[in-house]
Structures are given as C-alpha cells and as structure tokens.
Batch of 4 targets.
Target 1
Amino acid sequence: MQIDYNTLEKLEKLSHLRVEEEKRKEILEQLSEILKYVDNLNELDTDRLDSYFSTLDGGTPMREDVVSSNLEVSKSILKNAPKSQDDFFVVPAIIE
C-alpha cells in the first residue's frame, strides 16, 4: 500500500500535526516502508498458534500489586515535569 498526499493530509488532521512541505516526500516514503513491513507480517502462518502463546514456560509471570504510600516518589516524579500543580501534571489542552 502506498501513502499518497491526500492520505497524509488526513493523517495530519487526525493527529493535529503539521508536516513541513519540504519533509512531505520523506514522510510519505517512510510511512510506505512501514506499511510494507507490516504487510510482510501478514505472510506469517499463525493459524496453529494459540491466542495465548508465550515463549515463557507457564506464561507471563505475574506480580502482586502493592499500593505504595511513599509520597516522596510522586514528588520526585513531579519535580522533573515542565509544569505541575496540586500534585498533577499540567499539559496543554488537546481538544478544541
């Protein structure tokens, strides 16, 4: 499958991203290569594999969920955020 300029414009609109005019050709080629790779995966015969297939004997190991009450962890994480307020990350609005 090839990505054309119309499809790229739709992707820009859906993602709220703008691709510079001089980068359009490069982006189109990269997206087409990604789709070719994914299309190659369709050639794999997965009919005999179980939906819960795992390379680990016994499946994926699970761990017990433990609630942490250490407030220093969240303070340490928020300290690295560009903006925070009242123990929350502050991010730009994405819905217009």
Target 2
Amino acid sequence: MADHYEVLGVSRDASVDDVKKAYRKLARQLHPDVNPSPDAQERFKLVTHAYEVLSDPVQRQNYDMGGSGQQGFPGGFSDFGDIFSTFFGGGQSAGPRSRKERGQDALLMLDVELADVIFGVEKSLEIDTAVVCEVCEGSCAQPGTSAVTCDICRGSGSIARTVRSLLGNVMTQSPCGSCRGYGTVIAHPCSACSGQGRVRARRSVTVDVPAGVDTGLRLQMPGSGEAGPAGGPNGDLYLEIRVRQHDVFSRAQDDLLCTLDVSMTDAILGTKTTFEGLDGDIDIEIKPGVQSADVLTVKNRGITKLRGHGRGDLRVGIHVVTPSKLSNKEKELIASFAAGRKADGPALAPYQQGIFAKLRGRFF
C-alpha cells in the first residue's frame, strides 16, 4: 500500500494546511473532468484517500502509529466527488425548503399598579399581532386549491447548472427561481392573506403577573408571539414590567415605605390611629415622645417575595408637624408649658444621617 505522505508529496511533519494545498494541487491535475485516463482516476482515488487520512487528526495519529487509517472515504463523504465538491463547489442540494417558519418574538411594556405587586394579578391584554389566516388555515392557497409541484425544478427546490472552470465542467446547484426553493408553487394564493398564511389581527392575551415583580423584570410567554408564515409555530411574547409610582407608598425591595404626619400634641402624648394601606386598614400605635424621622415597622405588610416565602414589612416614617398658626389662647398655653419645662435653648446635635437616609425620598 502506498505511503500517504508520498502520495501527496508532503513531509511527515506537514501541517493540515500543507496537506490541503497539496491535495488541491493534485486534484486539479487528476480529476476525471480534467484527465479522463484510467491511471489518473486510480491515482486520484489514492490522493483523495490519503488526504482523508492525513487531514483528520485521529486517523493521522493512528496511521503514524502503524495503522492503515480508515478505509474508504470517511468524514461523511461517499466518494471523491463529494469531497471535490467541498473544495471546488457544486455541492448537492439539501432538498426544498419549507414554507413554514417560526414567527417573530414580541416585546411589550406592561404597566401594573403597586397594589397589584403585593399579591400578583391577572391581566388581560389586547395586542396587535400576526395570527393564522382563518380562510386558508395557514396553507397560503385559496380554499379548494393547494400548492402544486414546481414544473421547473420538479419539486427539488434547486436547479443544477454546468459551470466551466479550470477543471472543466463542474455541476453546481442553486435555488429554483420559479418556486424560490420551496419545490412547490401556489397558483391561487389566498385572497385574505395574500398567500402568506397569516394576517394582522387583534387578539386577547391573559397574563398571570406573579407577586413581587419589579420594574425591568421580563416575563416570557412561550408561543404567544406572532404566528409564523404558512402556519409556522408562534414566536414568544416577552412582557417588560413597569410598576407605576404610588402617591403615598413607595417600595424598597420587598418593603413598603410611607410617611405619617403626626401632630405635635399626639407626638407628645402618644396616640393610636388607623390608615388605609394597599391591602386593607393598618392599625398603628404612636408612643409618647415620638420624634420626626423615627421609623415604625409593621411586620408582614409589605410586598410578597418573588422568590421565597413570606412578605416584607411596612416601614412608617414619622413626621411631627409643628403648627405655624396659633390663636392667642394656644400661644398662652404653650408659653405656660414651656415655662414649666425650664428646657435649655436650641443646641447643635449630631446629624442623624442613617435615619434620614432611609426616608430620603419622602422628606426631600
């Protein structure tokens, strides 16, 4: 058996590129379209087999260790014509392509209220999208008719042509211009969808928005996007969440924040009050001596956690309101109260940055 390196005329340490170049050079000389002699055909087979062995690292290693290399034409080539077409064109057609294609994905913005985020909500959306044509049911053809085999390519979807090259006549294949590679022709396109198999329409989509979502989160709804051409599968629908701002409550991860105005007298004496929350009434006790920027926590009245269990908390920032207009009687009472307290005058104190930072969005 001839040595593969000698057949290609390369050294044993030749690179893959060197092996390829040597094969191309010999192929141009020995290909049957160029040299029809029997000796050239036999030698071309040897050259092709040698290339197949030496261009594959595993086969080459096996050959160098004393093996014979894989016999025949491995790597998916049935004969030397296949590998020759890989280098010089003329590959065989993979058959007609399908008219059915997957529909495009769609991205929409979905606005939800902050109250809806606490427990989640089901919303119904009306969207304009592509749906399967009800007249032809996605076939693209007028009812009562169907696609017919293309009489140009005879259903193959491609046309074979002979091209002259340095090696002689080489067969190439290209998509059929008559059927555009489909292999069939729709002689009578559906008038409702113009032969597309889909139309633009408005349809309703029901969305389950889970509890705990936040602005920027995207929900994926597989198969709820546009219908594909010719009855192809639907794409996916993506919904990007946008939580609307609330006039009273704001959000800090899974917690809710709000500010409660407290009168000066209630701050001094303490009181109990009830206010309306996003999920019902909330009872809160204000102890005597509460200060502005104090934070009262109501457990488990925040947002339901998106991942995990339980809810966040409601944090209520206290804002003590000092009256700006007083009657003479009120002024006398407060002056009497101040005289009895014998309190020191105003004095500087450390800035409580940590407390104010928690409620910055409410006070500034």
Target 3
Amino acid sequence: MAISAPGLGSGLDISSIVSQLMEVESQPLTRLNQKEAKVQAEISAYGSLKSALSSFKSSLSKLTSEDTFQSTKTSSSDADVLSVTSGTGAVTSSYDIKVNRLAQQHKLGSSEFAAETTFGGGPNDRLTITSGTDSFEIDLSTAMTLEEIQAAINVEANDTGITAGLISGDSGMQTLILSSGSSGYEDRVQLSFSGDVNAATFNFAMLNRDADDQALGSEQDLDASLTIDGVPVTRGSNSIDDAVAGLTLNLKTTGEATVSTSKDPLVAKKAVEGFVNAYNALKGQLSTLSSNGASSSVIRGIENQIRGVMNGVSGQGSYAYISQMGVTTNSDTGKLEFDGTKLDAALADNPDSVISFFAAEDSGFATRMDGMLAGYLDSDGVIDSIIDGANSRIKDISRSRESLERRLESTEQRYLQQFSALDSLMANMNSTSDYLASQLDALSNLTINRNK
C-alpha cells in the first residue's frame, strides 16, 4: 500500500505552503464573517429598540383610558361586615348598609340508611337533580347503595355544579348530602323522581341554618338580604355589583356599615408618573442603541416625533400642553420631571378637560403618542421592515459564504495537486542529479586509474 506524504520527495513543506496560501485566499471569507457580525449586531440593536419602544408604549395604556381620570376609592366603616370596591360609574357618595342575612349554598341531607341498603331497581326508576337551568339524571334501574349514588353524581358529565357527599355517623348509618355549587335560591338543589322512586325514598331535608344556628324558614332565605339606605335588596350572591352603580359589595357577616366613595387622583398621578419614568428610560436607551448598531437617522426620527407630540397642542378642553399637567423638561439633563400637585389641581378644576387632553380620540396626547409609536412597532412597521431587510442581507451573506467555501475547497485541492506534481518533478530531478553525479565520479576514477 503506497503512503503519500507531500514534500517527502523534494524536501518542500507543501502543507505549510498551501496553508499560508489558503490564508490569503480566505481573506474574503473573513470579511464576510465580519460583515455578518455587523449585521447581526444591527438586528440585535433594533430588537432592543423595539423592546424599549414597546415598554414606553405600554406606559400610555392607562393614559388613553378615561377611567384612569375618573377613579374613585371606597371605604367601609366595618370591614368585618362588608368590604367594597369601586369601578366605572361610581360617584362620590355614602350609603348606610345593613346586612340581614348572607347568601348560602343549598344543602340537602337524606335520612340515615344502612350502608348495604339499595335504592331503585325498577326499569323506570330515575333520580334527576337540577340547579338553575342545568339538570343531570341518575339511572336507578339497577339498584344502588348511597355510596354508588354518590359516585354516580360526582362525575365529570354532571354540569349542574351539585356535588354529593356521604356521612357515616356514630350509629354506623349513612346520610347522603347534596350541595349546590352556587349560593342563592335560583341555584338551589331541586329533585325530581320517576318510576317507583319518590321523595319519600330518600326523605331529603334542607340542612341550611341562619346566623343564630336556626334552620332556615324557606329556600328563599338562601338569598342574601340587606338594606341600602333603607331600600331592601335581595341577591343570590354575597358579592353584589348591581345594587349601587359602580360599587361591588362583598358581604361577610350580618351587621351594619357605612360605605363611602370619593375621587382618587392617585391613580391618574401614578399613570402620568409611569409615563415620565418610561420616557426617561427610553431616552437613555436610545442613546445607548445609537452607539450599538441602530441607525442614527432612525433614532433621530423617533426622537423628533416624540418631541413633536410632547410640544404639540393636545385635547380640546381648557388644557393644551403637557406642562399644564405638571410634566416639564429639565434643561440640563433633557429628562422629564413631574409635579403631581399641578395634575391634582387640574383634575379638581376641570376633570373633563384633563380627560380630553390625554384621551381624546384623535387629538389626545396619549392617543397621538400611542398612534405614532404604532407606526414603528406594528408587524409591518418601520422597525420590522428594517429587521426584515437585515435578515435578508444575512441570507445573502450565507449564500455567498457557501459559494466561497466551495471555491476555497477547490482552490486548496488545486494547490495540493500542483505542489504534489512539483514535489514529484523535483524528486525525479534529484534522482537524476544523483545518478549523473555518480556516473561522473565513476568516469573520474576510471581516468585516474588509466594514467597510473
């Protein structure tokens, strides 16, 4: 088996020579890699820019909502009796509330039976349980024990919300408990029977009791009962959001409490403060990104458009400039500063104009800023278009690299073949030279011997 060793015949270091030649040939590949790294840095910078703008845009969401400037806060004089929260539509006011009865989930209990007692067995025997508008049928044509009936009720197919429990008392007897999934009279447990099974088969009775541990007088007492400024209110839940506009009452126990509602400017102040902080953070990020690959012209365009909204006229009311809301620019740092007392005064003086300034549909400050940012952040916006173009350049570079690598491989093979041929030629020449030298030495020796 022949062993090939480039340069062995001639003494040339062919591997080293070819390696050095290929370093020169590979310089275009190095430039392609450097070009790709630059484009990748650009993509990363624009990704960071989009993230920074998204964070800034998020700070505008509350400023575009009228509810931010109409927020209220509530209090209860006795949070153990009831708590209260406010939402849209709540107005400054107070209400005297008396909780007479809490809403309960309906519970029925059967008579006690031995564990081996079975129910049903007739071909038409059925037990149907109903809560609200949902019903579920238990087939008793094959007789079942209470434990088997419990299992038949507690299946996934039962969408009534009613669940069954089984209590084994000291006597060793069992009681089947049916519990509604929701409180109130409308969602009470209702039973119907067919075949030879009837109400007397199980003898179910209501188990619910009032705050004084007395049995409820009727199923209607499953509803919560309260009076609001003397007006009677009955609901099936202990969380009541439709009695007083904008308020949700959460009943906890019987008793009395006074609920108060007042304006809450803190929500608006926090929203404006959040915007100011987001703006200042974005300003620092834009400066950093400009030096990390993002186009300075794009950065300047963003800064100019933001500045245009900041300095422009907004809203349609008494307030036109963001400075009237307490937001000003520090002349030394260029960052925004916020004086919350000015916003408080504006909200107290003319809340509708404050809402118009920030949230008017076409001319509001936050609305305009949000729309401007959307042009950069939308899926077909400026930044995505730039990133798409950069990714396209990456693909072109990859194709060029693949082509160049194939050419370099071919070039390396050609160099190896050429230098191998040179190696062989030089080896032959060296061999011929050695032969001629030996022949000349032989002739010289022959001549010397003859002359002796």
Target 4
Amino acid sequence: MPDDTKDLLKQVSNELVRVSDEFTRKAEEAMREVKNAGRLSEETKAKVDELATMQTALNGTVDELKARLGEVEQKGARRNGSEASASRSIGAQVVATDAVKDFGKSVQGGRRVSVPVKNVTLSADIAEGVVEPQRLPGIDVAPKQRLFIRDLIAPGRTTSPAIFWVQQTGFTNAARVVAEGTAKPYSDIEFATKITPVVTIAHMFKASKQIMDDFAQLQSMIDAEMRYGLKFVEEQEILFGSGGAAHLDGIVPQATAYAAAFTPESPTPIDTLRLALLQSQLARLPATGIVTHMTDWARIELTKDTTGGYIFANPQRLAGPTLWGLPVVETDAPEFLGDFLVGAFSTGAQLFDREDANVVISTENVDDFEKNMISIRCEERLALAVKRPEAFVTGSYPAPATP
C-alpha cells in the first residue's frame, strides 16, 4: 500500500509541475497581451483562472497525500499486510480507493471526491459538539396582529413636547331672514383651548454581544419584534388610552355613546353599525371607518339569508373587509369583544409623531461592558388629539337572538 501511495503522489506531483509551468507561460502571455492590446481577452482570462484553480487543487492534493502516506507507513509498521480493510485507518482507506487513484490519473481543478469509510474505523468517543447539528434557515417568529388604526387617522408631526390647539365646542346658529332696516341677529360660537402632551412608549431588551455579532438575522429579527411590540401598545393606547399620566387620551373613552335613531325589527350587528353611521352623519361628521373585534367581524361575514346563502360576500372570491362602503379594522383586544367604534377618523382625530419608532443599541448600560452584553432600547414619542369627540360613536352589538 505505501508503494501505491508513493506512485500516486509521484503522478500528482508531476502533474503539479506541468500545470505550474503552463500557468507561468500563460501568465507571461497574459502580461504581453495586456501590454500590447491594453486589455486581457476573455479567453486568456478564463484559461489563467482555470490553471490557477487547478494548481491550487493539486497543491492541496499533494499535501494530503503526503500526510496520508506518513499515516499509512506508521500503521504498516504496527500491522501486517493481511489485516482486513475494515481495520485500516480512514487515511489508508482514502488513499486506497479507486476514486482517489482515478483523481490522480485525470486531475481536474476543483473536483471533489466522495470516499465511503467503514464505521468500524471511526472513534466511538467523539467529543460532544464536534458534529454540528443541521441549522434550519430563518427564525420561527410569533404570530402578529395586523395593525391598521393608525392608517385611519390623519397623520401629523411635531417638534414640541405638547400640542396646543383650539377646539370649537358649540355653535348657536341665529341666521334668519332679515327685513330691510332691522337689526341682524347674532350667532354664538364657543371655543376651548386644549393641550395634548407628547407621551413616550418604550421597552428594553438584553442580549449577548457575541450572538448579535454572529447572527445578523437575529439582530434584524429582534429589531422587527421590538418595533412590533411598540406598535401593538400604540394601537391599544389610541383606542383605550386613559389620558392619565404618560398615557394617550384614547378615542373610545371620549367617543359618544351609541343611541339609535330608531329600532329596526330583529336588529342585527349589520343594522347596529348602519345606525351608528347614521348617528355620526347626524352630527355633521360622516364616518370614514369602522373598528370591531375579529370575532364580531367573523360573525357578520357569516350572516346568511333565508336560503342559506351568504349575504355579505362570496367565500370563493377575495373581498376586503368593508361594510357600507367603509373600511373595517379588526382588533383582537379582548375588552373590545362585543363592541364597535365608528367615526370620522380622518377629520375627528390626528396623530402627531414627535419621534418615530427607533432602536438604539448600547454597551454602556450598568455592567454591559464587563459582561459583553448589549442593551437594546426601542421607543417612540407621539401625541393623539381627538379634536371632535362627537365624530366617534361607540356601543355594543345586540345580543344574538335565541332560537
């Protein structure tokens, strides 16, 4: 077996010398071509690249064969020539395979050789972690609610810590026909000043510096998750904010209570929403959107006529969440189950961004530097001005009829 390996090593070494000489000649030819023509042809460039790749592969093969030869000679000193193939070392099996011999006879740059090795020659006490587990691409992230409330409200920006604005609170219309030579009547318009403070929504996260450096995808995922967490709380604040310290003054607590102009026979949730839209229209502030719980919206979509057909949509076609010509925003806030909100979102309220959602990473928080940790902060600053509370109507759906 050592003699076979020596012969193979000699063949590969000779091939390496041949390729090296050809590579040198081709490199000199390329230099002359660049000097004369000012550029290197694609054919010459491809040939030089091929020879360089082949030379690198041959160098690696020679080094490997030298190492295998030394191992084989050491094993041969301790074993006789009659030992079975299953008892030979991995190096000996590799060198003895026809695949490696064929590789030496017809060397190709970059060629890979697969050599089967009997398990009996493998060590049974490989340290844990030597064989790495398969890593699946991507990161399995948690499900998220779709957020749309912000999209319904008029956007705005501010550079101040508070929004000062004037709200019309009343209007007495005294306009009438006036006879010639008589005094004109006076109407009365009432105003009130309002101050809406900018609030901060934020959260923190700790992570190892090494894992953030090693896995760029993990860093981007954490960035996205933290921004989502921020937007989720923002959604809740826009709807239900108490208006207390460090809270937005939410729309629902300020909205007008639902009061139907009339009561239809056997009212359904669809009837209720239409009457709420009417209430908004009668307040001279036509609604531009509807907010309801996901479960309630599913109940509405499943409404059927007397023949069993869906009256709301065809399940076989894509249909956006709309009702009475207005967009419907679904929320999974548990406190909103059974309730609804309709209103003139685009004119009755405005959202002012003081500082957009941003993620900041620091290594100087507490003992982060000492422990090779990083602190990640995500925050935003914004203010919500509900300019016309009467533009919003909120209430509950009628209880389902019992059979």
